[in-house]
Write a structure and sequence with these properties.
The protein has helices spanning 2-22, 68-73, 94-111, 123-129, 134-141, 156-167, 188-201, and strands at residues 48-50, 55-57, 62-63, 78-79, 83-88, 117-122, 148-153, 174-180, 205-210, 221-228, 234-235, 238-239, 248-256, 263-269, 274-278. It is an alpha/beta fold. Helix 6 runs parallel beside helix 7 (188-201). The longest helix has 21 residues, at 2-22.
Length: 349
């Protein structure tokens, strides 16, 4: 009997610790004293109730993405004062993850004029994925090069320390921490510290994960980003065949305290700096079908008019030594002392 009571108290203690980490304790769910919560009559209450998460939050606590279905699924958008994970399941998704994060940064800077963004990563991550291009930042996202600061750390422990210190600063509009894989140091304790610092400063912290498997973290929201095929560019006369339209992302809700799993295809409009949703076969600017690309993938050879014969056919070659065996291109070859540039030795470095 005594052992049963001890086990029950241990379970209750663990549940309370989990609830404290998730921010769902009863004393933390109480509304501020200056506000009144009237859920029944709807008399202009200043609070929004998140049903599944059982949390009370101000309407300004979320960053609307601009897509009605996605914002409704997230109960208002991305949490501003919280840690948000953006995953890329494979290394090739690093560009999509970074592009989606920069799109969110563009939305944040529209509401936080003058404040910079700090992007933190290890030397490994920047050598693998590279740095954003300055002209692309301004042209696609409206971000001035001076608004995006980078911090390259030699080790993961240094990057985590910089992220924790930066997450508490109100002089930054947001903090981005980019990590590759599933390192052991990025555990529940480390993400809990980042989430607590973000809540204290009232600023978002985005954790970008390259080629990472989902694992328990303190982030209340996890989004999985991947690239989506672009559609032809929309014009007044309709889709322009053979063109490439706006960049597109496939966004999946991997984990959320307030939303069910879902998947959305978003297009980023670099001219208007906003997202647009693509549903099914609907195309940007109309409901037309995919336009076939009339441009050949590989052009024909310049030495003949017809393409090569189909595989499996028997071809007759001229005898060796005859003048017909010398192709027209062979007569145009440079002297032995002059070689083509692509045939020379590769330059080191």
């Amino acid at each position: 009997m005594a052992m049963t009571a001890v086990a029950r108290e241990t379970v209750f203690s663990l549940r309370r610790q989990i609830a404290k980490i998730e921010g769902t304790l009863p004393e933390r769910l109480q509304a501020p004293a200056a506000a009144t919560l009237d859920a029944g009559a709807g008399t202009g209450s200043d609070l929004t109730i998140v049903r599944r998460g059982l949390a009370a939050a101000l309407p300004d606590a979320f960053l609307p993405i601009g897509i009605d279905r996605l914002d409704a699924a997230l109960r208002g958008g991305l949490p501003k004062a919280a840690l948000t994970e953006i995953h890329g399941l494979e290394t090739r998704d690093a560009g999509a993850v970074a592009g989606f994060a920069l799109s969110l940064v563009s939305l944040i800077l529209n509401r936080a004029q003058g404040l910079p963004i700090l992007w933190i990563g290890t030397s490994e991550i920047f050598h693998e994925a590279g740095f954003p291009y300055a002209r692309g930042l301004h042209g696609c996202f409206g971000i001035e090069p001076g608004q995006l600061l980078f911090s390259e750390a030699p080790r993961l422990v240094d990057a985590l320390w910089i992220a924790e210190e930066a997450a508490r600063m109100t002089a930054l509009a947001a903090v981005i921490l980019e990590i590759r894989g599933n390192p052991q140091r990025l555990d529940l304790t480390a993400t809990c510290r980042l989430h607590a610092r973000a809540q204290g400063a009232g600023r978002p912290v985005f954790l970008l994960r390259q080629a990472a498997e989902p694992e328990p973290t303190a982030a209340p929201l996890r989004l999985i980003a991947a690239s989506a095929p672009a559609v032809p560019r929309a014009t007044v006369a309709g889709p322009l065949a053979g063109s490439i339209g706006h960049p597109a992302f496939t966004i999946s809700i991997g984990k959320s305290r307030t939303a069910l799993p879902g998947q959305f295809t978003l297009e980023w409009n670099p001219d208007e700096r906003r997202f647009e949703e693509r549903r099914g076969d609907e195309r940007h600017g109309g409901g037309s079908e995919w336009a076939e690309n009339p441009v050949p993938v590989v052009s024909l050879s310049g030495d003949r008019k017809d393409p090569a014969a189909a595989s499996g056919e028997i071809l007759a070659f001229p005898a060796i030594g005859s003048s017909a065996a010398i192709s027209p291109t062979a007569r145009d070859q440079p002297p032995p002392g002059q070689r083509a540039a692509h045939l020379g030795p590769r330059r080191a470095g």
